[in-house]
Amino acid sequence: MSAKGMDGEWQLVLICWGTKYGPAEINAQIRAARAGAHPPARVVLITDRPREGLAPMVEARAFPPEYLAPELIRGGCQAKLAMFDRRVLPADLPAIFVDLDTVVMGDLSRLLSACRAPQEIALLQSAILPFGALARLVCRLSGGRRYARGNSSVVVWHPAHCGFVAERFWQEMARHPGFGIKPLRADERFISWVAQPVMRAVPRGLAVKFPTEFMFPWLWFGRAYGALPWVRARREGLVAITLPGEEVKAEVLLSLPEGAVVVDRKGRRMEWSDRYLGPVRQRLLSRLRADLAPEDSGRVDQGRADLPGAEGQGEGA
Length: 317
Hints:
globular, alpha/beta
């Protein structure tokens, strides 16, 4: 990314509303991010309420109240678009956002490479049509009705250049109340649509969603695919894995016996074994155990007393 931050300076952005996640989960994710080779220079939590018990370096930023309308904090998660609002984040550093159900397993700063220029935005690729020249052509020819889409579990962008996303969202909401056009129905749909000319994919060798990467309709296919040398090599470099869905939450995975078969709501299957998942399973287990261990607030700051920080209000999601 061509911006202040090429030497590793970046900010970690977390978003939380409601009560699903508490300070222990938030602090665990911060610890993991700060354990990387190039830790964030700043940690910002966009929140709906004050929260006690957060790590001292967290800078809490309140949601602008309009993002907390009930219809924006439901399944479409449009409230997450506050990360692009010019009133919310400092604009001096590139930003990396990860959902709170994302397991950080390495140096998150490597995700900055997803954007070649500060005007670009990177998401996890989630549809067959990939981001790129072909998708931009399809979008133009279809009048914006067809476009490549991503998943917002992981987002890379520079706040100084991407405020247009939030501004356009509110413009379109005024024009099409009640989510009258499809891109308004989910945050990731809208980001993909409005920023299609500058969209990039987060490399699959750096971050994935667990079900998309490891779960398939047939176990034999998952075993064969995972055994391919280039797939094993790519997976060994993963720095972040998102665990969406109740079937693959951290507590569930930690409780599974070796060889257990997991089926998600889409009928995709996975065998919880080293044979099926390769070295990723042990790396994931190690990180999950560390994240769910009793919190030691001293571990958060250990060796990082030089980093900027401020006591802040926490937020819940």
